[in-house]
Amino acid sequence: MSGKKSWMILLGFLLAGTGFLALVLSLIGVKLSFLAWIDAPGPLFGFVLRLVFIVAGIILVYLNYSDFSGDNIR
């Protein structure tokens, strides 16, 4: 696995994990201090942005684990 690919996988896991943690903590009223700016426009915007973090992280991990070389296409 190349160096760039492993960094993108790490970034994807961090993004998804941070988004999930922020989402769970926001449900009980706790905020991560470095993500406090997310709720400034409104609670709906903050909720949607946390979901975007999770989905973007999952997409990054999936795309970097996928093999798009086309070797198995007939």
Can you put this structure into words, describing what you see?
The protein has one domain (3-65). Helix content is 65%, strand content 0%. It has helices spanning 3-27, 43-65. Helix 1 (3-27) runs antiparallel to helix 2 (43-65). It starts with a helix and ends in a 9-residue tail after the last helix.
Keywords:
mainly alpha, 65% helix, 74 residues
Task: Summarize the entry for a quick read.
With 74 residues, this protein is an all-alpha fold.
Task: Give the helix proportion (percent range).
Answer: 55-70%
What is the number of helices? 2
**Tally of strands:** 0
Instruction: Provide the β-strand percentage band.
Output: under 5%
Q: Which regions are unreliable across 5 or more consecutive residues at pLDDT < 50?
A: none
Order of helices and strands: HH
In whole angstroms, how far apart are the ends? 25 Å
Estimated radius of gyration: 16 Å
Quickly give the structural class: mainly alpha
Question: Judging from the principal axes of the Cα atoms, what is the shape?
Answer: elongated
Number of domains: 1
Average pLDDT number: 89
What kind of sheet is the major sheet?
A: none
